[in-house]
Design brief:
The chain has 325 residues and is of the alpha/beta class. The chain contains eight helices and twelve strands. The chain is globular, with a radius of gyration of 19 Å.
Length: 325
């Protein structure tokens, strides 16, 4: 939203937004919009759909343009975008471009969820919206009306993925799916894989490079204060899944997890810890892989999609998806 002419700023959360004394939220990034349609570079089609009328939650649906010319069912990728829970959307040109490329590279149908943003809609709103989107998609395994899903998707190959805050959401959706596996919506809906790209997890006590970069740690501390007012602060289980009261990692529903980190990302320590926690959890019987992009920072593949490392990252995700039964 546009700021008033001479507003008093009551809170500033760089580099994302300012909150003015009258309650106006001024977003500094992630506000641009790219329309859906046919992307000539990747030959991927997209359209916007309504998920939940009560909350006005939407999503952007993608499929390869040649899907109708063959009868092969494709994996479904349910994707949650990043932005610290407070900026961006599937229509953000950066995300729209990234999803077009990923759909083309992996040959999948993708559902990119437009969950509501904080601070107007504090957490857990984003988790509720994401769960609504999963249930909506799952309903198409036995009913539903969206032809792109009913005609083109193999519901035995549904993948959860997200970057940054979206990876955080994907983790908790994978746990919720485990506890909901007996429901009618989920009965014919299998999740063989989870893709965690630069996951946004945090904690009060610094680990690894977090301890040597106090300025960036202070910045990340403030993000969570904005989106999830909590007496537990950065040890709230939603942002710190490693605390004792957080859901156990044995509840991650997927048998295969790909964790992607970037060498220069201050969040990489939590991503590596996430991978290590899965590997060392004797009650979880899956396989976890770790992929690190050397010399890169957070969400580099979104901001610099033409780089060799970004192209390699998309290829790695495509291989992961297409190697799962």
């Amino acid at each position: 939203m546009d700021s008033p002419s001479n507003p008093e700023i009551s809170m500033e959360v760089p580099p994302y937004l300012r909150i003015h004394s009258d309650g106006t939220v001024e977003r500094l990034a992630g506000t641009q919009v790219a329309p859906p349609g046919l992307d000539p570079e990747t030959n991927v089609l997209s359209k916007d759909i309504l998920i939940q009328p009560q909350t006005s939650v939407t999503a952007r649906l993608y499929r390869p343009n040649n899907t109708n010319h063959n009868h092969t069912k494709l994996p479904l990728l349910i994707y949650f975008h990043g932005g610290a829970f407070c900026i961006s959307s599937p229509a953000d040109p950066l995300y729209h471009n990234s999803l077009n490329r990923l759909v083309s590279e992996a040959n999948v149908v993708a559902l990119s969820v437009n969950y509501r943003l904080a601070p107007e809609h504090p957490l857990p709103a984003a988790y509720h919206d994401s769960w609504d989107a999963i249930q909506w998609a799952a309903s198409h395994s036995f009913e539903g009306h969206e032809t792109w899903l009913k005609e083109s998707v193999d519901f035995d190959r549904v993948f959860l993925a997200g970057d940054s805050a979206g990876a955080n959401i994907a983790h908790f959706m994978a746990i919720k799916l485990h506890h909901s596996s007996g429901s009618s919506n989920m009965k014919f809906f299998k999740i063989p894989g989870l893709i965690m790209i630069h996951p946004y997890f945090w904690g009060k006590e610094p680990i690894g490079v977090e301890a040597t970069d106090p300025e960036r740690k202070k910045m990340v501390d403030k993000w969570w204060e904005l989106v999830c007012p909590s007496e537990k602060g950065n040890d709230d289980p939603f942002i710190n899944p490693f605390v004792e009261e957080a859901p156990g990692f044995e509840s991650v529903v997927c048998n295969n997890v790909l964790v992607i980190v970037a060498e220069r990302d201050i969040l990489k320590e939590r991503g590596k810890l996430y991978h290590k926690t899965l590997v060392n959890n004797g009650a979880w019987k899956g396989k976890a892989e770790l992929y690190e992009a050397e010399g890169e920072d957070h969400d580099f593949h979104i901001f610099n999609p033409d780089s060799d490392n970004a192209k390699s990252l998309l290829k790695r995700i495509a291989v992961f998806i297409n190697n799962q039964d």
